[in-house]
């Protein structure tokens, strides 16, 4: 059954509390970040085969934006933006790894010859305080689980507790021990929640499990469930991983209920970047991960806070992953620093006035850690029904500007740039006003 219209949402949003949460009872915060999942790969988003009953329930209980976008279609820059509240060209963590000098064996972060390159990137995460830093100053305990690229989360990220150690000598790169969460159980989270309750402290959980990310090794029962629904074993495995991720989210949300924490815990949901499964291999298909197409950057974004945020589904308003940090801070009664660019997801008025969201796709490797924006490949803008992709000519001289009506053409099959030059000019000016690209730095 279709949920109420946007008009109902806007009317209801005016009734939401504008004042910060009471310092006497600050809310807990759970941020759930899916890893490599396409925007439509949920039951509530219309997938015909993937079953996600727990996330469906969360969506029904949340202010759910179906037109959410990340600011980069690659995990590390995308996650750094969520944590810092900055766009990628501002925080400077533009790729997953630095490009190594010719003839050098990468060897990961354990290679001493590359240590300074990795350090230069990691140092940027705390140039300005991120979510955990600011919540910690307000008395919160915080736990990092799952994906985390920026070294020791307690040293650079301001977390009081962490699963990840970040030590390159022990295999630290993008999460190490933290990547076991959900795949092998929830004990680190349940133990942390018990400690926070014992100490009577509000808590923040950064929950970025390595799901449905590869390796696609779901429980056999789930693979068997989907194997007969597709000719591709690779697609069946991916679908099963989405189902497995949903089960683990249900386990975590059920634990909040069991501990009596549902009413005073804000739950937020997003995915770091998209994924379209290649039916012929375990890899991703084109126009998904690392791509500025919808399959790489679109995600549902949800906010659940029982009694404080009215559950509604909004299929029109554009929102961004850059909005998560200020939403969390405002809900917790904490002043949002000027370094953060987003808006409060609970406040419909400013979201409508913004009328566009932005981002940029970068190469997997950072070409020059001292000039990180040089590896930018495409800037993008979504405004209303239109989406503009502007390539970096310095990186790809043959690439053309592309324009799509993504409401009529969500798979971006018809490029309208040649048919509507006026729209290209207007949107290009708006994109340049946001950030004119690496040559401006």
Verbal overview:
The chain is an alpha/beta fold and 441 residues long. The chain has a single domain, classed as 3-Layer(aba) Sandwich (Alkaline Phosphatase, subunit A), CATH 3.40.720. It contains 13 helices and 15 strands. Strands 1, 2, 4, 5, 6, 7, 8, 9 and 10 form a 9-stranded mixed beta sheet that branches. Strands 11-13-14-15 form a 4-stranded antiparallel beta sheet, with helices on one face. A two-stranded parallel sheet has the order 3-12. A hairpin with a 2-residue loop joins strand 13 (376-383) and strand 14. The longest helix has 26 residues, at 233-258. The termini are far apart.
How are the elements arranged and paired?
Layout: H1 6-13, E1 28-34, H2 53-60, E2 63-69, H3 75-84, H4 88-91, E3 97-98, H5 115-122, H6 131-137, E4 141-146, E5 161-162, H7 187-199, E6 203-208, H8 220-227, H9 233-258, E7 265-271, H10 294-297, E8 298-304, E9 312-314, E10 319-320, H11 324-331, H12 348-354, E11 357-362, E12 365-366, E13 376-383, E14 386-391, E15 402-405, H13 421-434
């Amino acid at each position: 059954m279709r949920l109420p219209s946007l008009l109902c949402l806007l009317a209801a949003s005016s009734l939401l509390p504008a004042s910060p949460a009471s310092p006497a009872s600050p809310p807990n915060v759970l941020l759930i970040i899916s890893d490599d999942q396409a925007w439509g790969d949920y039951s509530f988003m219309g997938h015909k085969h993937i079953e996600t009953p727990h996330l469906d329930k969360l969506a029904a209980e949340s202010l759910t934006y179906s037109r959410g976008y990340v600011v980069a279609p690659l995990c590390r820059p995308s996650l750094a933006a969520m944590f810092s509240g900055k766009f990628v060209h501002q925080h400077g963590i533009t790729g997953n790894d630095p490009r190594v000098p010719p003839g050098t064996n990468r060897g990961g972060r354990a290679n001493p010859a590359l240590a300074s390159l990795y350090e230069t990137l990691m140092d940027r995460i705390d140039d300005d305080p991120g979510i955990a830093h600011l919540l910690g100053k307000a008395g919160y305990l915080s736990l990092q689980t799952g994906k985390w690229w920026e070294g020791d989360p307690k040293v650079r990220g301001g977390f009081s507790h962490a699963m990840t150690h970040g030590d390159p000598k022990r295999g630290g790169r993008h999460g190490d021990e933290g990547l076991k969460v959900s795949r092998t159980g929830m004990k680190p989270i349940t133990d942390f929640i018990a400690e926070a309750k014992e100490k009577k402290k509000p808590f923040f959980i950064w929950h970025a499990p390595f799901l449905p990310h590869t390796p696609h090794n779901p429980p056999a029962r789930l693979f068997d469930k989907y194997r007969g629904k597709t000719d591709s074993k690779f697609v069946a495995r991916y679908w099963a991983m989405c189902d497995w991720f949903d089960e683990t989210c249900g386990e975590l949300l059920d634990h909040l209920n069991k501990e009596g924490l549902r009413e005073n815990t804000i739950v937020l949901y997003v995915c770091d970047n998209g994924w379209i499964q290649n039916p012929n291999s375990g890899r991703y298909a084109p126009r998904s991960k690392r791509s500025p197409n919808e399959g790489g950057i679109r995600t549902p974004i949800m906010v659940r806070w029982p009694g404080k945020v009215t559950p509604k589904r909004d299929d029109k308003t554009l929102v961004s992953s850059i909005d998560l940090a200020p939403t969390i801070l405002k809900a917790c009664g904490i002043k949002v620093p000027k370094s953060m660019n987003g808006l409060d997801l609970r406040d419909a008025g400013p979201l409508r006035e913004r009328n566009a969201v932005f981002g940029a796709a970068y190469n997997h490797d950072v070409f020059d850690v001292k000039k990180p924006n040089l590896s930018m490949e495409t800037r993008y803008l979504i405004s209303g029904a239109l989406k503009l992709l502007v390539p970096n000519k310095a990186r790809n001289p043959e690439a053309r500007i592309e324009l799509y009506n993504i409401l009529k053409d969500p798979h971006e099959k018809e490029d309208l740039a040649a048919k509507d030059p006026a729209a290209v000019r207007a949107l290009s000016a708006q994109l340049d006003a946001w950030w004119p690209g690496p040559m401006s730095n």
